[in-house]
Amino acid sequence: MFLFSSHVLHLVTTTGHQRHLLRQRGWMIALIMFLSLFEIAISQNQSCDPESTQVLQLLYQDGHVVIDNGIFQLTLSNPEGFVTGVKYNGIENVLAYTGHENDRGYWDLVWNFPGKKTKKTKGTLDRIEATKMEVITQNDEQIEISFSRTWNASSNVTVPVNIDKRFVVLLNSSGFYSYAIFERLQGWPAVEIDNIRLAIKLDKDKFDYMAISDERQRYMPLPDDRIPPRGKPLAYPEAVQLLDPIEPEFKEEVDDKYEYSMESKDIKVHGWISTNDSVGFWQITPSNEFRSAGPLKQFLGSHVGPTNLAIFHSTHYVGAELIMSFEEGEAWKKVFGPVFIYLNSFPKEVDPLLLWHEAKNQTKIEEEKWPYNFTTSSDFPASDQRGFVSGRLLVRDQYISSEKIPANGSYVGLAAPGDVGSWQREYKGYQFWSKADEEGYFCINNVRSGRYNLYAFVPGFIGDYHNDTVFDVSPGSNICLGELVYEPPRDGPTLWEIGVPDRTAAEFYIPDPNPMFVNKLYVNSSDNKYRQYGLWERYSELYPDEDMVYDVDVDDYSKDWFYMQVTRKRDDGGYNGTTWEIKFQFDDQVTNLTGDFKLRIALATSNVAELQVRVNDVSVDPPLFTTGQIGKDNTIARHGIHGLYWLYSVNVPASSLGPGCNSIYLTQPLAISPFQGLMYDYIRLEYPDSVYHIT
Fold first, then answer.
1. Sheet strands side by side (includes 254-255)
2. Nearest to 427 by CA among 319, 328, 270, 338
3. Which of 236, 470, 479, 652 could staple 597 via S-S, CB 3.0–4.6 A?
């Protein structure tokens, strides 16, 4: 055990200093590095001695089963399969104790029979109450329990899916694993599902600090603070201003669960700390293979409650296109998880906020163990029942380089066979993604047996790579694809460009929030500035009378291009559409050009919006190009910086341009809500190809 002087221990354990540490990130990181050896020693001390006398027990109580491994105790309702108790480190139950015990930890989903949904409801919430409990495995090393429910064909009030919820506890493990097997059989009725998750609610009087990344962690308000008159709902129910919170430090802040959403590729560990007890409660997700819609899909995680969510499927940041739709008679099976619910603790002398770093260490351990070999379901294949796919991705763009360019940092993935970019709307199967290295080499490990297409997207280049060859991955297969070449859309050299092709609007101008509606976590965070509430209202404040005009020869997109094209609020409370103007110059040589210029427009998101393109005449009707109404991502209201990716190519006749000043007008005309609008990823105007050959 390492020893520290009393003034250091006081510095890292006093509550007031903990809060000060959060504001002094620079030397906080240095202090963490200084304490790293101490942290490792403590985590090692937490591990159980293999020679200890601890035993794994399964106990039956009235309406419950209890699994106890000597480190913690898990209580599950029998036969429903709800998580009703977690006893750990002297805390009788870390879960919420208010309300019904079945409201503490549960799997649930939202579903509908097609055509049954009303405008006032998202669907039927099903808490997945099992009807049968079965011990699958019980030995000295592990216990696995199944809580299942079989669909009854005579029922019209339960989702036509067989569901088997599993819980696994290992000897000497400080936490439990959970996964679920969903299955539809042939001949069953059509159904729609738009949300599947595992939700756990913690004791609000204990767990006061939330961490979802190194930069995004803070002390959190209480759920009571959101309830009137302490809280005031804002433009929608999820966003609440805290007028009279129990802890004064949160006064006037805005709390909204969507301010804490995360991309699937980044959801590895998140959770809560009870700072008084020095206890952490974490959800660790070693793989995102079972989540819908690829690595960039955004999901909720932890938020005020204190709530910890494992969301496997949702329509957030995509909309109705991601509702799971099953046709009449369609069979389907999918395993969601396992995820690991991990508990850790430190002695009271150590800063409890360091529990986050120990949880990250455990995450690395879980990732190395993936795919787990202890699950007993044949529906979850171990590593020797999976395959590997590798290769190298290069980019060919003759207008940038005469040589092929390594696809450095590209995301390369396997998903169900489909069309270009279909992975971002795919939800019935599994997806496997890998990030290519500096030379474009990639290796996709632990792929389930199945039939896949290969997909990729490359930072710095528009569009999607799609290899429409159907790859059959079988147990133990090792498929080497060699060199693959992506040719991004391009017809000619660049005349001008706005933004960076990275599928987000993060590089554009993001305004400061209204000081009356802030989340203090993001006040000094340039990377998360867009997560503040109400930024859509700032456009009308910055452009009260006329819309944005951008001169490609003068302006800087990081300062002069507002990051979302939204509606403008009128004095009477209504809204108007908006038209943005892009100005650019041509010399006299333009009169000698023939053919079409190509306007590339990549959208980072769209919500019930339409994009119309006009050239040098803002009033011409019909416009040169229109998308029609597209998107229901709701990214604007949910503090996002991207949703679904859209790419459009517009032919601009050379005859429509002339020497001197020219303008392209981008109009978003639909305007019944403040949340309608677009975010641009990147815009480029290309010369006709003939210019390249002439030069």
1. 231-233, 240-242, 254-255
2. 319
3. 652
Average pLDDT of span 581-609: 92
Query: Distance between CA 398 and CA 402 in Å, rounded?
Result: 5
Backbone dihedral angles phi then psi of residue 265, each to the nearest 5 degrees: -65, -20
Confidence band of 425 (pLDDT split at 50, 70, 90): very high
The secondary structure element, H or E, covering residue 689 is helix 689-694
How far apart (Å, rounded) are the C-alpha atoms in residues 525 and 517? 16
pTM of the predicted structure, to 2 decimals: 0.91
Rg from Cα positions in the chain:
27
Report CA-CA distances (Å) from 43 to 46, 73, 535. Answer: 5, 19, 43
Alpha helices in 164-236 (DSSP H): none
Query: How far apart are the C-alpha atoms of 147 and 9, rounded to whole Å?
Result: 46
β-strand pairing of 565-566 with 625-626: unpaired
Cα 304 from Cα 202, distance rounded (Å) = 10
Closest CA to 297 of 285, 309, 310, 313: 313
**Token pair listed for 401:** 């380089």
Q: Which two tokens stand for residue 553?
A: 């020869």
- Would you give the end-to-end CA distance of the chain in angstroms? 72
Amino acid at 139: N
Tokens of 432: 């496997």
The sign one gets for the Cα dihedral 465, 417, 321, 337 is negative
Four-residue CA torsion sign, 565, 570, 573, 575: negative
d(CA 348, CA 301): 28
pLDDT digits (tens, 9 = 90+) for 620-659: 999 999 999 999 999 999 999 999 999 999 999 999 999 9
Task: Tell me the H-state helices in 487-580.
Answer: 538-542, 557-560
User: Are residues 43 and 109 in contact, defined by beta-carbon separation less than 8 angstroms?
Assistant: no
Quick one: angle between helices 15-23 and 25-46, nearest 10?
120
Nearest in space to 347 (alpha carbons), one of 49, 46, 48: 46
Spatial distance between the Cα atoms of 160 and 182, rounded to a whole number of angstroms: 10
DSSP H/E element including 11: helix 6-13
Q: What is the pLDDT of residues 199-218, one digit of tens each?
A: 999 999 999 999 999 999 99
Q: CB within 8 A of 17, min separation 6: which ones?
A: 10, 11
Where do we find the tokens 């099903």? 126
* Cα(655)–Cα(657) distance, integer angstroms: 5
Q: Which two tokens stand for residue 503?
A: 């599928």
Token pair belonging to 377: 């379901």
Residue 25, pLDDT above cutoff 80: no
Q: Which helix (H) or strand (E) holds 272?
A: strand 269-274
Assigned token pair, 232: 């005031």
pLDDT at residue 1 tops 50: no
Choose among 354, 342, 338, 373: nearest CA to 174: 342
